[in-house]
Backbone:
C-alpha cells in the first residue's frame, strides 16, 4: 500500500469540512460559559417549593428564562445526551407502558402523563433544538421539551424500578427544595464539566480532532505493547527554540511508540485559511531528516478547505512524510496499516 500521497490524491479522500459529530462536540464545550453564567437562575427554579412537576413546568413557561436553556442545563448536569435519550424513546413502551410516570416528590407520590413521547424518528439534542447558538431566546415550552425535562429531573425518582434504573443518572430531584445541597451539587458538577472541557475556542476543534485520532488508534491499532498518547516527543528529534536560544525536543500532536521505535503524527484540519500550515511546511524537511536519521517515522493528517488553498505547503508536507492521510475513519485505517508495518519490521 502506498502511504505517501500527492495533494491530488489527498484531496480525493478529504472531508474538507469538519465532520458533524466533531462540530457537535465543540459546540457542547463552547456552551459551558453560558451555562455557568446562568446557573444561579437555573438553581432558583429548583429551590422554590412547588406542589408537583406540572407546576414547575408552568413556572418555567411563565418566566423570562429560556426553556431550552433550562433543558440544556439538565442535559449537561446529568450527562444524559442524545444517545441515551434515544434509547429511552426506543424502549418507551417497555419503560412507561401506561404512558405515565409515577415519581416521588418529597414524601408524596405523584403521576406525570407524557404529552409527546414516544416520537417517530430519533430523539436527539438537535430535535430538541439544543444544538443551536440561540439558547437564550425565549420560546414557549414544547410538549416534547416538557417530557424530557421530567425524565432528566425526576428519572431516578421514578417508582418503577426498571425505569428508574434506565434513568439512574438523573438524580437532581433528590435536591429539590434544599437550596444548600442543590447549590453544592450544581457547582461541583460544573467545576467537573469545566475541567474536562477546558481550552480556548481557537484550539477546541483541533484538540478534539487529535483526541478523535488517539481514541481511534487506541481502539483499532492492534499492535501489542504499542503506546498511543496525545502530545509527546521523539528521541533524537530537536529544533532550535528562539525563546531559550537552545536546542529543544520537538513536540508532535500524537506519538505512538513501541520499544525504541517511535512515530510522530501532526494533525492539521483548517476549514479557513491559516498560516499554521505554512510554518509546518517550512519545518517539514528538517524534521523529516532528523526523524529518518533517528530511525523513526512521521505522518501527517491533513484536511480542511483552508489547507487545500495552500497547495505548495501541502506538497511540501506530502514530500517530507512517511504517511499522509485525510481526516476520516477510512483514512485512519490506512494510518493503522502503516503503523503496523513499521512496528512489525
Residues:
Amino acid at each position: 500500500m502506498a502511504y505517501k500521497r500527492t495533494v491530488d490524491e489527498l484531496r480525493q479522500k478529504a472531508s474538507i469540512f469538519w465532520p458533524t459529530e466533531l462540530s457537535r462536540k465543540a459546540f457542547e464545550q463552547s456552551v459551558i460559559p453560558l451555562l455557568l453564567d446562568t446557573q444561579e437562575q437555573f438553581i432558583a427554579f429548583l429551590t422554590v417549593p412547588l406542589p408537583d412537576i406540572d407546576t414547575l413546568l408552568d413556572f418555567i413557561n411563565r418566566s423570562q428564562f429560556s426553556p431550552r436553556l433550562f433543558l440544556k442545563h439538565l442535559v449537561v448536569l446529568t450527562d444524559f445526551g442524545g444517545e441515551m435519550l434515544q434509547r429511552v424513546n426506543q424502549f418507551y413502551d417497555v419503560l412507561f407502558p401506561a404512558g405515565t410516570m409515577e415519581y416521588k416528590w418529597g414524601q408524596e407520590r405523584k403521576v406525570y402523563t407524557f404529552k409527546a413521547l414516544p416520537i417517530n424518528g430519533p430523539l436527539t439534542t438537535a430535535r430538541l433544538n439544543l444544538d443551536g447558538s440561540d439558547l437564550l431566546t425565549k420560546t414557549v415550552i414544547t410538549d416534547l421539551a416538557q417530557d424530557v425535562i421530567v425524565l432528566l429531573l425526576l428519572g431516578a425518582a421514578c417508582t418503577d424500578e426498571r425505569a428508574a434504573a434506565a434513568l439512574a443518572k438523573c438524580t437532581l430531584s433528590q435536591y429539590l427544595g434544599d437550596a444548600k445541597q442543590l447549590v453544592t451539587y450544581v457547582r461541583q458538577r460544573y467545576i467537573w464539566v469545566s475541567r474536562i472541557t477546558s481550552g480556548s475556542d481557537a484550539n477546541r476543534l483541533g484538540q478534539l480532532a487529535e483526541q478523535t485520532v488517539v481514541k481511534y488508534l487506541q481502539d483499532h491499532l492492534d499492535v501489542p505493547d504499542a503506546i498511543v498518547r496525545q502530545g509527546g516527543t521523539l528521541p533524537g528529534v530537536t529544533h532550535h527554540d528562539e525563546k531559550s536560544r537552545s536546542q529543544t525536543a520537538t513536540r508532535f500532536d500524537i506519538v505512538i511508540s513501541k520499544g525504541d521505535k517511535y512515530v510522530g503524527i501532526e494533525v492539521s484540519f483548517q476549514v479557513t485559511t491559516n498560516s499554521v500550515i505554512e510554518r509546518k511546511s517550512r519545518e517539514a524537511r528538517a524534521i523529516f531528516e532528523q526523524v529518518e536519521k533517528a530511525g523513526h517515522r512521521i505522518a501527517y493528517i491533513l484536511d480542511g478547505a483552508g489547507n487545500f488553498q495552500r497547495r505548495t505547503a501541502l506538497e511540501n508536507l506530502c514530500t517530507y512524510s512517511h504517511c499522509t492521510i485525510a481526516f476520516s475513519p477510512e483514512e485512519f485505517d490506512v494510518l493503522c496499516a502503516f503503523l503496523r508495518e513499521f512496528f512489525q519490521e
